[in-house]
């Protein structure tokens, strides 16, 4: 199979009307930068100099408290309604870019507080695409053979109607295995399953 793709980039232009202070991290940097848990997006965001994560998982941007940031996903607010923190989990592979605005924030952000963290997800196109990360499960052989820690992620996108309407979806699973040696053999293990399918993007060209 042979496929040729031509990628062009517009020249950087200075917008004198936009005085916002921005920092951006792309999907490639999120995937390539090593972090303790590569399946947790919040830890990858700390690659930006303005972002620090505390011991409870909260994000502090430019020295602000975790609840003083407006969190957006494709323009929609996703902060916890109680304390306004970013407690939701996202598929790392479904994050196209993350942008932090730390100063001179525009009036379009009604609840910006100290700063704004925006997440962008990819759009579909006329080609069917499928991706996976960590598809092979881990095996734990302590006190028998069991399914160990496993964090598979799946992404797929394609057309609903070619040339007009597309979709992009991301699914992540999490299996956590815990072994406590001090307990009796028949009661020293536990396992948990979690599933997230929180990112479903629909897009069109306006001609539907």
Largest sheet: 5 strands, mixed
How would you spell out the order of helices and strands? EHHEEEEEEEEEEEE
Which structural class do the helices and strands define?
mainly beta
Mean pLDDT: 81
Work out the radius of gyration. Answer: 20 Å
How many domains, in number, for the residues? 2
In what order do the strands lie side by side in the largest sheet?
1-6-7-4-5
Distance between the termini: 33 Å
Kindly state the percentage of residues in helix: under 10%
Number of strands: 13
The CATH H-level superfamily of the largest domain is TonB-dependent receptor, plug domain
Shape: globular
Query: Roughly what fraction of the amino acids lie in strands?
Result: 35-45%
**Mind telling me which CATH architecture of the largest domain this is?**
Beta Complex
Low-confidence stretches: none
Number of helix segments?
Answer: 2
CATH topology of the largest domain: Ferric Hydroxamate Uptake Protein, Chain A, domain 1
CATH C-level category of the largest domain:
Mainly Beta
């Amino acid at each position: 199979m042979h496929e040729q793709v031509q990628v062009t980039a517009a020249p950087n232009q200075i917008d004198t009307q936009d005085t916002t202070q921005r920092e951006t991290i792309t999907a490639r940097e999120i995937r390539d930068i090593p972090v303790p848990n590569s399946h947790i997006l919040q830890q990858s965001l700390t690659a930006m100099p303005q972002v620090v994560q505390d011991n409870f998982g909260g994000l502090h941007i430019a020295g602000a408290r975790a609840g003083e940031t407006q969190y957006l996903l494709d323009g929609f607010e996703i902060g916890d309604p109680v304390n306004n923190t970013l407690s939701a989990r996202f598929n790392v592979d479904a994050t196209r870019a993350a942008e932090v605005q730390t100063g001179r924030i525009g009036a379009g952000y009604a609840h910006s507080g100290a700063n704004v963290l925006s997440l962008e997800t990819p759009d579909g196109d006329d080609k069917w695409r499928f991706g996976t990360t960590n598809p092979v499960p881990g095996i734990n052989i302590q006190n028998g053979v069991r399914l160990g820690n496993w964090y598979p992620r799946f992404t797929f996108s394609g057309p609903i109607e070619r040339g007009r309407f597309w979709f992009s979806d991301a699914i992540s699973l999490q299996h956590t295995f815990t072994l406590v040696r001090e307990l009796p053999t028949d009661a020293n293990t536990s396992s948990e399953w979690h599933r997230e399918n929180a990112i479903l993007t629909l897009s069109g060209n306006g001609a539907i």
